[in-house]
Amino acid sequence: MSAQVQSDVSLKPFNTFGIEVKAQHFAQAHSDDEVRELLAHAAARQWPVLVIGGGSNLLLTADIQALVLRMASRGIRVVADDGQQVIVEAEAGEPWHPFVQWTLDHGMAGLENLSLIPGTVGAAPMQNIGAYGVEIKDVFVGLTALDRQTGEVCEFDLQACGFAYRDSVFKRSPGRWLILRVRFALSRVTQLHLDYGPVRQRLSEQGIDQPSAQDVSAAICSIRREKLPDPAELGNAGSFFKNPVVPAVLAEHIRLTHPALVGYPQADGQVKLAAGWLIEQAGWKGYRDGDAGVHQKQALVLVNYGQASGGQLHGLAQKIQRDILERFGVALEMEPNLY
Ligand SMILES: Cc1cc2nc3c(=O)[nH]c(=O)nc-3n(C[C@H](O)[C@H](O)[C@H](O)COP(=O)(O)OP(=O)(O)OC[C@H]3O[C@@H](n4cnc5c(N)ncnc54)[C@H](O)[C@@H]3O)c2cc1C
C-alpha cells in the first residue's frame, strides 16, 4: 500500500480549535487510488473511517476510535474556457484560500467573496460555505464523490447537491459521500457582489471606486483579519452557531423588548436573525470559563485559550444554547461537526 497508516496520532495540528485528542489510526490520501486503498484497509480491519480536510469545522470531544483519513490530493485544472466563462476543477485536498487566489491570479472572478475561509476544496460543498453575500452554490457546476456504501464514483450537479444555508445532501448523510474533486463556473467578465457588510465602504476608504475581483478579495481579507481570530494564534472554528431562521411573529415579539434586533426577511416569510447579536445581547461576549471562551470581539466565535477540551467547549456551547432559548425562544444550531 502506498499510503502510510500511523497509530495514536495527535490531532492537535489537524483541527483549528487546537484540541488535543488522538486518532487511533491516521493516514493522508494523495490520490483516488490511495483513498480506495485506505478504505479497503480500514474495511478489512472493521475500523470506522472519519474523513477530514483542514479540520476547520470540527469539534473533537474524545479520542477518535477510527481511521482518520485526511484528504491531501492536489491539482487544479481548467476544464473548459470559452473566453467568458471558465470551468475550473480542483482536487479535494487543495487548501481553499490558495485555490481562490489561484483563480483570481488567472483572471477568473466568482470566488473573491469567499477569500480567506480556512479548509479544503473537498469540504467546501459539505456546508455550502458562504461569506459576504456569496455561497459556493452560486458558482458551483458539479463534483465527483465516492459512495462509501457501494464503492461507486458518482457525479453530482447543482440540483443533486441539495444546497441550502450551511447545508447539503452530503452534510445530511454523514459519512456516506467522500468528495474527490469539485468544479466551479467562473467568469472572465467581472460581476461583483459588494453590497454585503462593509465591503463597498472598505473599498471606497481605499479610494477604489472601480474595483477588480482582486481588490474585492483584498478588502474582504482585511475585514476578516480584523473581525475573526486567526486559528494559528487562538484556536477556533469560525462562526460556532448558524444564524437562526424564525417565524416573523417571533421576530416581532423579540423586537418589542429589543428594538435594535438584527433580522433579514426571507423569501418564505420567515426572518433570519443574527446569532452573534443574540449571544452578545445575552452578555456572553468575552465570557471565559477556564480555557473555553466566547471571543472578546465576536460573540459568534467560541475560542480555545490553550488547553480547553472539546467537552468543555461543547459544554459552553450548550449553556449558550439554553440561555438563548430561555431569553428569546430561539434554538441555536451548532455549525461545526461534532465528533
Ligand atoms: C477562522 C474561521 C473562519 C471561517 N469562516 C467561514 C465562513 O466565512 N464561511 C463558512 O461557510 N465557513 C467558515 N468557516 C468554517 C470552515 O472553514 C469551512 O466549513 C470549511 O469548508 C471546512 O473545511 P475543512 O477542510 O477544514 O473541513 P473539516 O473541518 O476537515 O471537515 C468538515 C466536515 O466535512 C467533512 N469532510 C471534509 N472533507 C471531506 C471530503 N473531501 N469529502 C467528504 N467529507 C469531507 C468532515 O468529515 C467534516 O464532517 C471558518 C472557520 C474558521 C476556523
From TrEMBL:
Molecular-function annotations in GO: UDP-N-acetylmuramate dehydrogenase activity
Names of the cofactor(s): FAD
EC number: 1.3.1.98
Domain FAD-binding PCMH-type: 19-189
Pathway linked to the protein: Cell wall biogenesis; peptidoglycan biosynthesis
Taxonomic superkingdom: Bacteria
Reactions the enzyme catalyzes: UDP-N-acetyl-alpha-D-muramate + NADP(+) = UDP-N-acetyl-3-O-(1-carboxyvinyl)-alpha-D-glucosamine + NADPH + H(+)
SUPFAM superfamilies the UniProt entry points to: FAD-binding/transporter-associated domain-like, Uridine diphospho-N-Acetylenolpyruvylglucosamine reductase, MurB, C-terminal domain
Subcellular location: Cytoplasm
Annotated Pfam families: FAD_binding_4, MurB_C
Keywords: Cell cycle, Cell division, Cell shape, Cell wall biogenesis/degradation, Cytoplasm, FAD, Flavoprotein, NADP, Oxidoreductase, Peptidoglycan synthesis
Active-site residues from the entry: 166, 239, 335
HAMAP family documented for this protein: MurB (MF_00037)
Family to which this protein belongs: Belongs to the MurB family.
Task of the protein: Cell wall formation.
Name used for this protein in its record: UDP-N-acetylenolpyruvoylglucosamine reductase
